[in-house]
Structure formats: C-alpha cells, structure tokens
Write a structure and sequence with these properties.
Low-confidence stretches: none
Number of strands: 4
Mean pLDDT: 79
Length: 82
C-alpha cells in the first residue's frame, strides 16, 4: 500500500502532514509541480542529496573550468539577426 499524507487547512494555506519516512531536515522545502504531481525537495546548504542522485564529482572536476566551444565573432552573429 502506498503511503499517504494528511492534507489540512492552516489559515489561508493548505498543508500536508508527512509520514515519518518522508520527513526532511530543515524548515523549508522547494516545491514544484510536474503534471499533476507536486514535488517537495529539501533546501540544503550542502548538496548531499545531489550526490545520491548524480553520484559524487571528483575533487578536480571543476579545476580546469568548463569546456565550452568558442563563440563566433560578434559581426557574424549580428548579421544573423538583420
């Protein structure tokens, strides 16, 4: 059986009481809608949750900067919008 959260009104807002296994650390959570789903994500100063999703980056991952292609000279870009 899927877990459920109790929904209730608190003044002018709707709130949800989360089951123990869904509790998050902190006093805030990011919220977004994806289709009919409402997704709560922890607001964390550390990115430990990202490591769980994407894996850990090596210590030197950002050392060399990002490998971005060079932009064409501005004159060539300007002619594309005339």
């Amino acid at each position: 059986m899927a877990a459920t959260a109790e929904l209730f009104r608190s003044v002018r807002s709707q709130a949800a009481r989360l089951p123990k296994e869904f509790r998050m650390e902190g006093a805030e959570a990011r919220i977004r809608r994806q289709g009919a789903a409402v997704i709560l994500e922890p607001v964390a100063s550390d990115r430990a949750w990202l490591d769980d999703v994407a894996g850990r980056f090596s210590e030197d991952f950002f050392a060399a900067g990002r490998n971005r292609p060079a932009l064409p000279p501005r004159s060539r870009l300007g002619s594309a919008f005339r």
